[in-house]
Design a protein that fits this description.
By secondary structure, the protein is α/β, with parallel strands linked by helices. It has helices at about 5-10, 20-30, 70-85, 115-125, 155-160, 180-190, 230-240, 260-265, 295-305, and strands spanning about 10-15, 35-40, 45-50, 55-60, 90-95, 130, 145-150, 170, 190-200, 205-210, 220-225, 245-255, 270-275, 290. The strands form three sheets. A seven-stranded mixed beta sheet has the order 10-9-8-11-12-13-14, sandwiched between helices. Strands 1-4-5-6-7 form a five-stranded parallel beta sheet, with helices on both faces. Strands 2-3 form a two-stranded antiparallel ribbon. A hairpin with a 5-residue loop joins strand 2 and strand 3.
């Protein structure tokens, strides 16, 4: 590969998910760009780019996962560094868009933090955002730059289909996730069920009843995020109580905060299928299966550079 070909696209990363960045770069046949992100003694972030990016198509891979504020600042500072170094275009590759659940006002004087992040990323100098499974689709409209919102469902569906589970029913853990569940059900050729629940407070949910016939079937619970795991664990218990033969959960983003790991370990779930949009770190559990999104992200990056359609990746 000539120097000119190599410089056509350059991949950089922050500290949020370096393993995913390495895997994406490997899929593209590129080394990661030489950079360093450290902290001064007072906690301020220092970013250094060690190679020329002038005229290059640059991509910074950085999910806004825990610690969200630190990872967000790293993203913004790297974008600023690339812009000031005369990169031709800067794409923020944000597999997990943190603060996405704060996408509207639900109480008086609530902020719309998802919109604030969009403003910050744009003001920092990003020309495009490449993300995956935004919690709310309207967040794309919060940006005044192009946003490509990829889907993990094809990856999840392919893995589940290869398991040859037999009589399967896809279950949405709430009414808001029906579109996602229906998409997975169509990919698997399965029927759909819905769990009707009431949420009395933040991070607290109460299962009400199940719409659909799950008795004797393998139930596949699908959601975009598993955070404290309260919703998904209660849903699994409700499905078992209704006679489901087995219950499997899958999601795009394994936030897994607070009591999540303990809840999942003691739950009725036989398997939890997630992607590596967020690194699990020391959160280890035998029943968690991690699927890579590196090839999906790499293909999207190639299509951005080559100005080809990205919507074909949704099929």
């Amino acid at each position: 590969m000539s120097c000119q070909e190599r410089r056509k696209k350059m991949i950089f990363c922050g500290n949020a998910n370096p393993k995913l960045a390495e895997d994406i770069a490997a899929e593209l046949g590129l080394p990661l760009g030489e950079s360093q992100i450290t902290h001064f003694s007072d906690g301020e972030i220092r970013v250094r780019i060690f190679e020329t990016v002038r005229g290059a198509e640059t991509f910074i891979i950085q999910p806004i996962c825990a610690p969200a504020n630190t990872n967000l600042m790293e993203l913004l500072i790297v974008i600023d560094a690339l812009r000031r170094a005369s990169a031709k275009h800067i794409t923020a590759v944000v597999p997990y868009y943190g603060y996405a659940r704060q996408d509207r006002k639900t109480q008086p004087r609530d902020p719309i933090t998802a919109k604030l992040l969009a403003n910050l990323i744009t003001a920092a100098g990003a020309d495009r955002v490449l993300t995956m499974d935004l919690h709310a689709g309207q967040i794309q409209g919060f940006f005044d730059i192009p946003v490509d919102n990829l889907k993990a469902l094809p990856i999840l569906a392919r893995y589940i289909k290869n398991k040859n589970l037999g009589d399967v029913i896809v279950v949405s853990p709430d009414v808001g996730g029906v579109t996602r569940a229906r998409d997975l059900a169509e990919r698997l050729g399965a029927k759909l069920a819905i769990i009707d629940k009431r949420r009395p407070d933040a991070n607290v949910s109460e299962v009400m009843h199940i719409i659909g016939e799950v008795e004797g079937k393998t139930a596949i619970l699908v959601d975009d995020i598993i955070d404290t795991a309260g919703t998904i664990v209660q849903a699994a218990s409700a499905l078992v109580a209704e006679g489901a033969r087995d219950v499997i959960a899958c999601c795009s983003h394994p936030v897994l905060s607070g009591p999540a790991m303990e809840r999942l370990a003691n739950s009725d779930l036989s398997e939890i299928i997630v992607t590596d949009s967020i690194p699990l770190g020391d959160k280890k559990l035998d029943k968690i299966k991690v699927l890579s999104i590196a090839s999906l992200m790499a293909e999207a990056i190639s299509r951005v550079v080559e100005e080809r359609s990205i919507s074909e990746l949704f099929i």
